[in-house]
Amino acid sequence: MTYERQKDFGTPEVLSGTAVTLSIDGRDVTVPQGTSVMRAAAEAGGAIPKLCATDNVEAFGSCRLCLVEIEGRKGTPASCTTPAEQDMVVRTQTERLAKLRRSVMELYISDHPLDCLTCSANNDCELQDEAAAVGLRDVRYGYEGANHLGEPVDGSNPYFDFDPSKCIACSRCVRACDEVQGTLALTIDGRGFASMVSAGQTGDDFLSSECVSCGACVQACPTATLQEKSVKELGKPERAVVTTCAYCGVGCSFRAEMKGEQLVRMVPWKDGKANRGHSCVKGRFAWGYANHKDRITSPMIRESIEEPWREVSWDEALAFTADRLKAIREESGPGALGGITSSRCTNEETFLVQKLVRAGFGSNNVDTCARVCHSPTGYGLSTAFGTSAGTQDFDSVMQSDVILVIGANPTDAHPVFASRMKKRLRQGAKLIVIDPRRIDLVRSAHIEAAHHLALTPGTNVAVLTAVAHVIVTEGLADEAFIRERCDWDEYQDWAHFVSDKKHSPETLEPVTGVPASELRGAARLYATGGNGAIYYGLGVTEHSQGSSTVMAIANLAMATGNIGRPGVGVNPLRGQNNVQGACDMGSFPHELAGYRHISDAAVRSSFEADWNVTLDPEPGLRINNMIDAAIDGSFRAIYIQGEDILQSDPNTRHVAAGLAAMDCVIVHDLFLNETANYAHVFLPGSTFLEKNGTFTNAERRIQLVRKVMEPANGLEDWEVTQALANALGQEWSYTHPAQIMDEIARLTPAFAGVTFDRLESEGSLQWPVNAGNPDGSPVMHVDGFVRGKGRFVVTDYIPTDEKTGPRFPLLLTTGRVLTQYNVGAQTRRTAQTVWHSQDVLEIHPSDAENRGLADGDWVRLASRTGQTTLRAKVTDRVAPGVVYTTFHHPETQANVVTTDFSDWATNCPEYKVTAVQASPSNGPSEWQEDYAQLTKRSRRIAPAEPAE
Amino acid sequence: MEIARLRDMAQQIARNFAVLGEAEAAAATADHIAKFWDPRMKAQLLAEEPGELPPVVALALEKLAFAGQTSKPG
Q1: Chain B, nearest residue to A493 by Cα
Q2: Distance, CA of A508 to CA of A501 (rounded, Å)
Q3: Of A540, A792, A796, A896, whose CB has the highest number of CB atoms within 10 Å?
Q4: How far apart are CA A936 and CA A416, in angstroms?
């Protein structure tokens, strides 16, 4: 589409079952009751001049530009704050209104720089537009009086500038920060003429304030006061393409605003149903990695990992790769080959990688990065409910009365959804947080958790069983729901189990570290507080009992009847943009697309008929099994698309040994990542801006990813996989990802009704989309569970084998921060490093003091597996005995320390519990220094041979 | 693959099913391994001396071996 600003209706949409009809400038307009006159006019195609109103924040009524006349009413009310009423007669254009509006505009312009031609917002400025709309021709007051034109620009934020000389004090930025983002970092300082937008406290600039750089203020600003630096540098965009963000599992819709092939800015799309027009700092601003100098755009090969890389043509790279794979298959059989699909790639790309492994390699040795994050969700929710997905859409949270967050840190990891959640909490919903750390949600502006259960890491199952104990023994279970929707006998077995006194909060308090009274209060609130919704993250899954915890959560939701309607449910917050999709597409070694076991002959035969192959009926190796099998020599080649297992997977040295033992490691990525240190083939990848396809977010919403620029490497990722398949003798002939989706829909019942055409016309679809749910399913299990009756599973608490002791007395738990993303391959190559340039170790003041550690000191962090060094951050955010770090930076390699312990059912690593010791250090460890050398050596690229 | 690792994995599965009682836990463990383990891992574990393993795991492997002899998946 050509560039035009997104339509702004002035005030938010009102949802009401009652409609009113009014007359605006002689035209009848019907709108939901409660809609403002301003919005009614806009919906009818008109436009009342406005400055302080915008449709993602509540009406404010300060600019006085949107005045209207209403028959039978005195004066000229502001249309933004006046609700439309039945039979109301409104005039928006009269001589009196024109005069008033010109006078108002005249005052604004008298204190505004008249530099439109050189202003970065020229022709994209609401003030400029409205000045033209009201017909302002001169300013009677002159420009010599007191003004703000000399105010200095605050350029501290790496992505946008704040130029107070252009500010009209409309408060849109302040209200966006309050109402949309929920950070409340901005305010209007001073009064009257001295009123100024201010970030944080006196003396703060934007960077040093609490601003989280979500960009809501920039989007709200009607002038160039808050403006992207990229727009100032590159100029106004020429066209816009709607696409889907490639960071977290919220799946925000953005308009990629372009100038030729140059991305100028990403602006959240108001019609995006996942984000409703909001964004976070990563999605909105951290896209500079796409053109970073580190990006590799030519295929490269090398005979051994000791040699430098050699740039070659696609043909040579593919022939080299195919020859190696064929030779290994010939010598060792198909079981020696495997692949890993990427949660960062599209559904279509992921589907093709698993197809290549199953049909092309001839094994089921395919796995995905969900192995190390949400594989327990797959096992747990499939067991309890019959399918592996969250039960709600994101909008559901606005109908929740009690929100239980366990093992998740939404403000850091899923910030746009966290803003919706915070909005609901500010409206009065109650919050329960179960987390060893005092995450930001526990207490922040206008939000305070009713209960924070700061449990000892590794005791999730014990805590949830104690919650269940309270619900059952105090008679708080919803028996009618259970009898109707669940297996009653299984419920009784479970209820009998949890009712045992050994599961009471009092008995378990010494184990969990949670005061019994606090736990009882939380249980009662969840069971009796109205609509109860559970949101969880990797603090649930990345444990030795990750799957048990997921089932324990499902038990609580079923026991209290909190399933099957808006406002309730069980909601895994997916880490990466397409974790849900990668799992849906058959990326696990035991199941085909749609979560159907590979041993199911009927399912397998449908794929065999479509693909014209015979599939192995036995499950294949998981990622960690692949590494183990590589070390013993039975697994020799791997194709890794868009994942950096050396940095992301636990026990780095073990992963390195496995990779080093393989004969053919193929890395398909944007950068020479850490895994590529051990690779023989590097196939350059394309960014989400350079490809077509779909992502599926945490609410099962399938959304289009649209190509906004040509791939720098020449091929979209699905084309690379297809070329590799064909080099191996397959005869694939897809010409567009839409054809791949047609194949997915043909073979996967939950996707039966999905096509690119439908996604194009409807914006998005939430699976299942099939005969029973032709328009998709915002909420699942409405009339019954996918598996029939909901299944209560007895989940006995079994302590992890990872024990603290005199040598390793602290418990390490790992996670991520708002400003960086997972292994940091993308965000470390942007200005995000301003906020987070290195991993640090959070340690409680008492633990720090006992070890002679001060804030900023080097710390040696050691476990039974390995050791690394990083800087200390002394904080009471973590409890005594618990330390915390992130895994964003390869220089730290936090996973050198984590262990091989994993979830009993899925082998999801136990990242959240590692026994460690922290002690003073002088600097990087020997391992870190060796690794730096290895990296330098591994990334050598041989100079091109001169042409003859 | 390292047999100790496979043994630990099987024992961990069995421990999580132990609440069902020995017979049911053994059946659930066998079923879990059948559904989720690669054939080479199963074969290696099945080659172990049952006496080296906890009773529930040993019983599970008996069931797994029997199922393997009587029916192939799918």
Answers
A1: B20
A2: 10
A3: A540
A4: 38
pLDDT band at B69 (very low <50, low <70, confident <90, very high): low
Q: A631 to chain B: which residues are within 8 Å by CB?
A: 1-2
> Chain A contacts of B41, Cβ < 8 Å?
621, 625
Give the pairing of strands A160-162 and A226-228: antiparallel
User: Which chain A residues have a beta carbon less than 8 Å from that of B15?
Assistant: 798, 904
Q: Is residue B29 part of a domain?
A: yes
Distance CA A921, CA A730 (A): 55
Q: Which of B36, B44, B46, B57 to mutate to test the interface with A (most CBs of A within 10 A)?
A: B36
Task: Tell me if B74 is assigned to some domain.
Answer: no
Q: Is A493 on the interface with B (CB under 8 A)?
A: no
In chain A, which residue's Cα lies nearest the Cα of B31?
A905
In this structure, the number of other CB atoms found within 10 A of the CB of residue A517 comes to: 12
Across the interface, of B15, B16, B35, the residue whose CB is closest to A619 is B35
Task: For chain A, list residues with pLDDT below 50.
Answer: none
Q: What is the DSSP letter of A394?
A: G
Size of interface A-B (CB pairs under 8 A): 69
Q: How many helices (H) and strands (E) does chain A have?
A: 29, 36
How far apart CA A941 and CA A310 sit, in angstroms, is 6
Among the residues of A689-748, which ranges form H helices?
717-727, 737-747
Residue A664 bridge partners (DSSP): A637
Split at pLDDT 50, 70, 90, the class of B74 is very low
In this prediction the ipTM stands at 0.94
Yes or no, beta carbons of B2 and A628 under 8 Å apart: yes
Q: With an 8 Å Cβ cutoff, is A549 touching chain B?
A: no
Phi-psi region at A3: left, alpha or beta (left = phi > 0; alpha = psi -120 to 50): beta
Greatest Cα pair distance, chain B, in angstroms, is: 31
Domain boundaries, position B8: 3-69
- Please give the tally of structural domains in chain B: 1
Indicate the pairing of strand A300-301 with strand A310-311.
antiparallel
The answer to whether the CB of A878 falls within 8 A of the CB of A815 is no
**What residues contact residue A435 under an 8 Å CB cut-off, 6+ apart?**
A405, A406, A407, A408, A409, A442, A452, A453, A454, A455, A539
Let me know: does A873 contact A514? Beta carbons within 8 Å.
Answer: no
Shortest Cα distance, chain B CAs vs residue A599, angstroms: 5
A798 shares contact with chain B (CB less than 8 Å) = yes
CA triplet A260, A261, A265: central angle to 5 degrees?
Answer: 90
For residue range A518-540, what is the model confidence (pLDDT) as tens digits? Answer: 999 999 999 999 999 999 999 99
Residues whose CB is less than 8 angstroms from the CB of residue B40 and which lie 6 or more positions away in sequence, other chains included: A335, A629, A634, B1
The pLDDT of residue B73 is above 50: no
| Region for residue A714 given its phi and psi (left: phi exceeds 0; alpha: psi -120 to 50; beta: otherwise) | left
Are A604 and B72 in contact (CB < 8 Å)?
Answer: no
pLDDT of A1: 63
* Chain B interface test: which of A625, A631, A907 (most B C-beta within 10 Å): A625
Pairing of strands A451-453, A430-434: parallel
Joined tokens for residue A847: 């633990």
Of the candidates A418, A372, A467, A383, the one whose C-alpha atom is nearest the C-alpha of residue A573 is A418
Does the CB of A625 have a partner CB in chain B at under 8 Å?
A: yes
Q: What's the pTM?
A: 0.96
B74 CB neighbours in chain A (<8 A) are 598-601, 604, 617
pLDDT score for A3 = 87
Domains along the sequence of chain A with CATH: 19-93 (3.10.20.740), 160-291 (3.30.70.20), 300-372+579-759 (3.40.50.740), 375-572 (3.40.228.10), 810-937 (2.40.40.20)
